[in-house]
Amino acid sequence: MFEDTMCYRMLSLLFLIVFLAAGCSQTAEENAAKTVPVKVYMVKSESISNYIRATGSVEGDEDVILYSKVSERVEKVNIRPGQAVKKDQVLIEQKSDVLEQGLEIAHAALKTAGAHAKLASLDFERMNRLYSEKAISPQQHDQSRTARETAEHAHEQARSMYEQAREQFENSLIKAPFDGVAAAVYVEKNQTIATGQPAVQIVSPSNMKAKIHLTAADIQQVRIGQRVSIQFPTLPGKQFSGRVDKINTAIDQTSKTLEVEIGFLSNDKRISSGLFGEFFVETQTNANRLVIPETALIPQTEIRIDRETGLQSTIKRFFLFLSQNDSARMKEVKTGIANNGQIEITEGLTLGDSVIIVGQNIVKDGQPVNVIE
């Protein structure tokens, strides 16, 4: 009786194991045959570039800060930030009674000296005629000449004094040195400003440029004329084009970088002095290459040990899945330039291949796939 019971239990257990094994085998087969929805990218030929990224600020080709030349009160502010200015336009007027009075006195002295010089000249002409007619003595003629020369000398001295007074007065007027735009105004009406204090910044908007700084290693890849893509955080979604105009060969001892000047290819009014941006210097462009989204790649890292030397090396390999005949097919590829989420494939793909870009991390080689739009 006991032996029969044990035999029955053994047979039941064996049947259960066989049943579970069959069930697991069936489940595995079902999983293998499970169709995975995927999205694909049709491989096409296009260009891809390599860039060096740097940051920098925009400035005008002509960009100056004008300083006060006298310590006086600001009488008038004739400009506001962003306003266009003309060459020699008076932007800031400082009040100076002393300079105004000095100019008035010098001007009056110049007029008086000029009148005396004119009278002395006319008198000499008259005396010269009389002398030619022998109506006056040589001494009288010489006296007339001396009087004329003295008056002319006094006139020149008065003119010099007036020019000095006018120059001093002009120092109280801050003028635009060229046509441009007021980038900033640093003073206000009735404010007393000292000599050498910044008053206004003027830039020329027609030729904007930017300066970036690159390391000595990066500068080896940069050449005059290379294209530059430019983006500004304050102008989202907008991209501007430029070129490398100048490369400074002197290294900055503090930052250990070299200055590179970038010129803009268009005069866009939105680009203003002081604007901070990102600059992408195009160092290499490969045309007519097979390019795919970088996320399609499945990287694998292998560690290999040389049997002879015992040295260890790390090798990175890249794989992807193709959709072929409604199945996922794993393929190893070689890569080239990578930029902005795109990567060049140098080996392993052909034009028109369907690369799985959504679902590639869950499919297996040979697994059925359903391509969705």
Q: What average pLDDT do the residues reach?
A: 87
Tally of alpha and pi helices: 4
Order of helices and strands: HEEEEEEHHEEEEEHEEEEEEEEEE
- The unreliable regions are 1-29
Give the fraction of residues assigned to helices: 25-40%
The backbone outline, from C-alpha atoms, is rod-shaped
What's the alpha carbon Rg, rounded to whole Å?
Answer: 43 Å
Biggest sheet strand line-up: 2-11-14-13-12-15
Largest sheet: 6 strands, antiparallel, barrel
β-sheet strand percentage: 35-45%
SSE-based structural type: alpha+beta
**How many DSSP E strands?**
21
Account of the 3D structure:
It is a single chain. This protein has helices spanning 2-32, 97-132, 138-170, 216-219; strands at 36-42, 44-60, 63-67, 72-77, 84-85, 90-95, 173-175, 180-185, 192-193, 198-203, 208-215, 227-231, 239-247, 257-264, 276-293, 298-305, 312-324, 327-339, 342-347, 354-358, 369-371. It is an alpha+beta fold and 373 residues long. It has 3 domains: 36-46 and 289-371, conserved putative lor/sdh protein from methanococcus maripaludis s2 fold (Beta Barrel); 52-61 and 206-286, Efflux pump adaptor protein, beta barrel domain (Elongation Factor Tu (Ef-tu), domain 3), CATH 2.40.30.170; 63-201, no CATH class. The strands form 4 sheets. It has a 6-stranded antiparallel beta barrel. The model is unreliable at 1-29 (pLDDT under 50).
Draw up the topology in text.
Elements: H1 2-32, E1 36-42, E2 44-60, E3 63-67, E4 72-77, E5 84-85, E6 90-95, H2 97-132, H3 138-170, E7 173-175, E8 180-185, E9 192-193, E10 198-203, E11 208-215, H4 216-219, E12 227-231, E13 239-247, E14 257-264, E15 276-293, E16 298-305, E17 312-324, E18 327-339, E19 342-347, E20 354-358, E21 369-371
Parallel strand pairs: 1-21
Antiparallel strand pairs: 1-20, 2-11, 2-15, 3-10, 4-6, 4-9, 5-8, 6-7, 8-10, 11-14, 12-13, 12-15, 13-14, 15-19, 16-17, 17-18, 18-19
Helix pairs in contact: 2-3
